[in-house]
Specification:
Elements (H helix, E strand, L loop, with lengths): L13 E2 L2 E2 L9 H14 L1 H15 L2 E5 L5 H11 L6 H8 L2 H4 L1 E5 L1 E4 L19 E5 L8 E6 L5 E8 L4 E6 L3 E5 L17 H20 L3 E6 L2 H4 L5 H16 L23 E6 L8 H14 L9 H6 L3 H24 L11 E5 L2
Antiparallel strand pairs: 1-2, 3-13, 4-10, 5-6, 7-8, 8-9, 11-12
Helix pairs in contact: 1-2, 2-11, 6-9
Length: about 375
């Protein structure tokens, strides 16, 4: 007789309900989610990429299809989708938070369809048939994840959420939820961030922009240098001399161009009329060796290329000799990638009592 049991596992690395499959500790767990949020909220190229994908997905025509041709189930599920308290576009925007994080978890909240005039606000519906429908699919944010609850066979049983408002821990079973993921590899509930391959160029770009901003803020013709008597640098310097030296060091390291620019420096001369102390700018001898603008642009292009969105920085094509025709091909490829993300997310959804008979699909116009 054939052995019907499952012996092996998917190989997903997890411990105590925490997925630990990411080899870079900086991108694992809560720290990783903070990094992806910083990329999403602070980087203009990343923001433009996610916005463009969201708009592509929102323009799709979403249809409910039954594999067995059950028109009644299709009509019921379609009616439920349009009868939620939040619009489909608003719900879809929350679902698409899976793009930067790799996953999006939504609790299914039901209602008894009591018609527009139902006594309870939560039962109000465009339908008065008394059937159970969806009231909303509210997101349970990625930042609020405490841990996952896994079954003995590795299947997902629930999400444990730490309510940031102070309500404590709540456990949401998967039977009462929808989990959207960018990929189902290793059956990981956390999928894989769409920005994962963009992390390295984003990191270097951010550092270079910080160095560039420091240079612009100082806006000097050279390096500030202070000349002080040797006694001030001696280990035998008096306490007063040490205090003066510390003040001069603070001036040199803080000098910059802004609304409070200016330096007050003591005019001290020796018996021969030479300055005892002086502040000068050591000339750099020319422009910087590296063109930071070109370097940052290169990293922007790499970030866009990782998600097939190289059509965003159009100037890159002229600089690199890429023709407009190839740019148009990349544009269509990027749009197709957005539709593919929508299709994958839709296929990962389960639809309660109608789940066996109907599925949700996004179709391009």
């Amino acid at each position: 007789m054939a052995d019907l049991s499952e012996i092996g596992t998917t190989g997903l690395v997890r411990s105590g309900g925490v997925v630990a499959d990411e080899f870079l500790t900086e991108l694992a767990g809560a720290q990783g989610r903070r990094t992806y949020r910083e990329m999403r909220d602070n980087d203009p190229i990343v923001g433009a990429i996610l916005y463009s994908i969201e708009q592509v997905i929102k323009r799709l025509d979403w249809v409910v299809s039954s594999p067995v041709g059950d028109a009644e189930s299709e009509d019921f599920v379609s009616g439920c989708l349009g009868d939620m308290s939040e619009s489909w576009d608003a719900t879809l925007s929350a679902i698409l938070s899976m793009l930067p994080y790799g996953w999006s978890f939504h609790e299914i909240v039901y209602k008894r369809r009591g018609g527009p005039g139902a006594a309870k606000a939560e039962d109000r519906s465009a339908f008065a048939d008394g059937r159970i429908g969806w009231r909303k699919w509210p997101i349970r944010t990625q930042e609020s994840l405490s841990k996952w609850v896994f079954a003995d066979d590795g299947g997902l049983e629930a999400m444990e959420q730490l309510d940031p408002s102070g309500a404590g821990l709540v456990t949401i079973p998967i039977e009462k939820a929808l989990l959207f993921r960018t990929t189902t590899a290793k059956a990981s509930p956390e999928g894989r961030s769409l920005l994962r391959n963009a992390v390295r160029p984003w990191y270097f770009k951010r550092r270079i922009e910080e160095f560039e901003a420091i240079g612009i803020e100082r806006d000097l013709a050279g390096l500030p240098v202070a000349y002080v008597p040797p006694d001030y640098l001696s280990s035998n310097a008096t306490q007063a001399e040490k205090q003066v030296l510390a003040a001069i060091q603070q001036i040199v390291t803080s000098i910059k161009r802004n609304e409070q620019e200016g330096v007050v420096f003591p005019a001290m001369f020796d018996a021969d009329g030479h300055r005892v102390m002086d502040l000068q700018l050591l000339s750099s001898g020319g422009s910087r060796q590296f063109d930071t603008d070109r370097i940052i642009t290169r990293y922007d292009q790499r970030i866009a290329m990782t998600v097939l969105s190289d059509f965003l920085p159009f100037g890159g094509y002229k600089a690199s000799g890429i023709g407009r025709e190839f740019g148009d091909d990349l544009l269509h490829l990027g749009l197709g990638g957005g539709e593919a993300v929508a299709q994958l997310g839709a296929e990962g959804a389960q639809f309660g009592d109608a789940g066996d008979d109907a599925g949700l699909f996004g179709e391009g116009r």
